[in-house]
Amino acid sequence: QVQLVESGGGLVQAGGSLRLSCAASKSIFSINAMGWYRQTPGKQRELVAVITRGGSTDYADSVKGRFTISRDNAENTVYLQMNSLKPEDTAVYYCHALERLSGGLYDYWGQGTQVTVSS
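RE: above sequence
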């Protein structure tokens, strides 16, 4: 079981930056992948960025070149650095972890943090 707690959301003007943090309740060294998703009212949750245990990353096309995902295994924390923010980035951002155990794959979600970008 992994508990995830996000922080760092808030209100920012277009063009500004925010850094989201996701603190895990246990070591993330063995967690297969961690990522950030976002969701707006009436829409499905969408993947924003993911980082694997090996450090490989992938991003949604809409955020490539602006967002950077990273992980600090010593701090059990994953970050999402968001630059050049746009109003369309406004959403609730959720941290996600995917862990492979002997019983199968398990995924965990944080409670979400609101990001609002004003024009």
